[in-house]
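Bench log. Compound arrived from synthesis this morning; before running ITC I wanted a structural hypothesis for how cytidine-5'-triphosphate sits in the protein. Inputs:
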Amino acid sequence: MLQGKHIIIGITGSIAAYKTALLTRLLIKQGATVKIVMTPLAKEFITPVTLATLSKNTVLSDFFHHDDGTWNSHVDLGIWADVFVIAPCTANTLAKMANGIADNLLLTTYLSVRCPVVVAPAMDMDMFAHKATQRNITTLKNDGVSFIEPTSGELASGLDGKGRMAEPEAIAQWLSDFFETKESLKKKILITAGPTYEAIDPVRFIGNYSTGKMGFAIAEEAANRGAQVTLIAGPVQLKTTHPNITRIDVKSAQEMHDVAVKLFPEMDAGILSAAVADFTPETKYDIKIKEKQSLTIHLKPNPDIAQKLGSIKTNKQILAGFALETNDEMAHAMGKLERKNFDFIVLNSLADKGAGFGYDTNKVTIIQRNGEKKDFELKSKKEVAKDIISILASCLDRI
Ligand code: CTP
């Protein structure tokens, strides 16, 4: 799985740095190209000469070459890499990463990379268990950083506990599994996201509070795992940069409906996360309404995109939707699963703190058509997207 992969290894100042020599050798043997960036302190534990020899590349540590003044470009390095693995990672570097501090080349590289980042911590057990370290780990997980858990055993301090860096073989295996998963979802996936705006006149509309964050996180995660994603987005402030995502911007429910119905037949799956307005004004005024006393706007129902896609879905396609409820959550979600012919539904309740519109977090329950039901804890929308895409992948595997 590592053949031809571009891997940056970041090394920080820990006694476990000697194990990174072996990790480098394992990755090179499996066909990866490895570039190493070290913090100044890491050089006290293992020499750049050893690592340059094993990696067959110059080891980077300083911002520029002292002899001729040329810069080591962390930006170029960040664009080149498929994954950035920091092993060993000290409590100090974790803390700096969590706070965006960039006082060495490893940290500027962390802030520049566009690829996934994985960290293998190494530290004394009390440092690892400390609230500050755990808080930094949670922050980084919410930022999308992955962790290879340290193991328990004898530590350099002589103490026994959790804090030993994972063995090089385990890190190499993690990377191999990562690339296997990353490229496993070779499917075409349609995603709807954000609100819809239903025009009243040229300056006013009926809308809702959806920001599109959940749908965009799902699109990003599916694209990261190799899917070709078509993202139909209502009016949102979010950007998409992933090359696997084709974005189609729409305003109204009718526009979203027309694009979705046209494209769905060529898709392997659809995830409908848009908060589609249920009604739209019967009449759209061409000029600004000037009425000051009272105004009655007659509404007509919008098409139900989910129901329509559910009715044309073949047995080779998977369709999933959302239910955002305030009460009788499970009964409403089950009703929508049936009515819209979903294979699974993601339920979130506005009664849960931190869940729903605008938040960066969400707390969901995923219910599958086969009756399987899983409650997830409150986590970042990026992590919720991972759970949703994993379930989608398992549904696609079953057909
Ligand atoms: N949905 C859709 N088109 C609509 C309305 C909803 O595609 N016109 C999709 C949403 O994207 C979501 C699911 O259907 O995946 C449920 O949305 P929700 O608004 O909760 O459902 P409604 O059918 O509108 O039910 P409610 O009576 O609760 O508003």
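What the model suggests: The mean pLDDT is 93. Residues 192, 253, 272-274, 276, 278, 302, 304-306, 321-324, 336, 340 surround cytidine-5'-triphosphate (CB under 6 Å).
ITC booked for Thursday regardless.
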